[in-house]
Design brief:
Layout (H helix, E strand, L loop, with lengths): L2 H7 L8 H4 L27 H14 L11 H4 L19 E4 L2 E4 L11 E3 L2 E7 L2 E6 L5 E5 L5 E5 L3 E7 L2 E6 L5 E6 L7 E2 L5 E7 L2 E6 L4 E5 L11 E4 L4 E5 L2 E6 L2 E5 L7 E5 L5 E7 L4 E6 L2 E6 L6 E2 L7 E9 L4 E8 L8 E8 L12
Antiparallel strand pairs: 1-2, 1-3, 4-5, 5-6, 6-7, 8-9, 9-10, 10-11, 12-13, 13-14, 14-15, 16-17, 17-18, 18-19, 20-21, 21-22, 22-23, 24-25, 25-26
Protein name: Tat pathway signal sequence domain protein
Keywords: Membrane, Transmembrane, Transmembrane helix
Organism: Mitsuokella multacida DSM 20544
């Protein structure tokens, strides 16, 4: 199952799950994930260029899209530019799975009763393996597999799981019953779980036969996966004091305190890409094709191209926003993301945010909610 096939059947939202998973959630991929909005809005495939532009303009003006606009293909095309395992899978955290007429949308927090959608509530870390949706239940933190059409589910793992990430028939997950190591189950050859790492991790990515992960000391480590059990005995340290990292065609972009650096998968050709003068830096997302970082400094969002000395303010009020994630750019250049608001201590509401094109963001680009 490649990413294109996956995205034709699932549409997704990222929500901040750090408080529930016990660690920072990884946003990984050179082709990051666009999401659904408050009213189960997604963008898929099938309508004309003119209709698409009309839909985008309407959304920017009103913040709303009707269900007829669930079929716009181009916004998902950039997710498929590089097939790095099933890296989109680990991004699908929070919310519910919504299904209607073979269209899958996840993460909407408000769905009209008359919408015709069926739901799998409290599902995080969605993966599609064949005709099965593999996910973690937020209620009991177990891992389940549900038939994509009937939604009949069965238990795969009855332990305390964190991030779940499928590559091929292997279901990788953070195993909190074993000290937070990465373990896996093989759907093709059912057996007991097997450990991949020898230490606890806060987040990880599997790319083909390699694994990247952050350990408890915030060291980014790399190891090869064997056909038998997983990581080699001696993983290699790539960078220390890493908060989060992103994959792109040329390698890895990592945030470390006030600095953003890039390097290859093997840790070579390290370059400092940006340094915050204020010291309060958080990378919110990365558009690989544009070499464009979205950052948050002192409560405000901005963009910066890799290697640039200064960031450009982003036309987006981040004062009441906890996270800005799932950044993606469509073929017309419009940039989308998911803003997870924090209007009060109990709010986890999220909404689709639309910015201008990569050439206008940070200057005269517009943002809408």
């Amino acid at each position: 199952m490649n990413k294109k096939e996956y995205l034709e059947s699932l549409r997704a939202q990222v929500a901040d799950d750090a408080s529930r998973q016990g660690g920072r959630k990884l946003l990984k991929s050179s082709a990051m994930l666009l999401a659904a909005a408050l009213a189960a809005i997604g963008i898929g495939m099938g309508i004309s260029h003119a209709q698409r532009n009309s839909a985008y303009e309407h959304y920017q003006q009103s913040g709303e899209l009707s269900y007829e606009y669930l079929d716009v293909k181009d916004a998902f095309a950039s997710w498929n530019q590089k097939d790095v395992g099933n890296d989109v899978d680990a991004l699908l955290a929070g919310g519910r799975i919504l299904l209607r007429d073979n269209l899958r949308v996840t993460g909407a927090s408000a769905v009209p009763a008359e919408s015709g959608f069926r739901q799998i509530p409290d599902a995080s870390y969605l993966n599609l393996v064949g005709n099965a949706i593999v996910y973690r239940s937020d209620k009991d933190r177990h891992i389940y597999a549900a038939d994509r059409d009937s939604l009949q589910s069965h238990l795969l793992y009855d332990g305390n799981a964190g991030e779940v990430f499928c590559v091929g028939t292997r279901v990788y997950f953070i195993d909190y019953d074993a000290g937070g190591v990465v373990s896996y189950l093989d759907l093709a050859a059912p057996s007991d779980k097997k450990a991949v790492t020898a230490e606890g991790v806060s987040s990880f990515a599997v790319c083909g036969d390699e694994i990247l992960y952050l350990n408890a000391a915030h060291t980014l480590r790399h190891a090869a996966l064997s056909a038998e059990n997983g990581a080699k005995i001696h993983p290699r340290d790539l960078m220390q004091r890493v908060e989060r990292f992103y994959l792109y065609d040329a390698g890895i972009v990592a945030e470390s305190r006030d600095t953003v650096a890039s390097f290859t998968m093997q840790g070579d050709r390290v370059q400092r890409r940006y340094r915050s003068t204020d010291g309060d830096l958080q990378v919110a997302g990365f558009l690989p094709g544009q070499q464009l970082l979205f950052i948050r400094e002192n409560g405000s969002y901005a963009t910066v191209r890799l290697g640039a000395a200064q960031a450009q303010p982003l036309p987006f009020d981040g004062a009441d926003t906890r996270t800005l994630t799932s950044l993606v750019q469509d073929e017309a250049g419009a940039i989308y993301g998911v803003a997870c608001a924090k209007k009060d201590t109990s709010s986890r509401a999220s909404e689709l945010v639309v910015f201008g094109t990569a050439g206008t963001v940070g200057t005269d680009g517009k943002a809408g909610r």
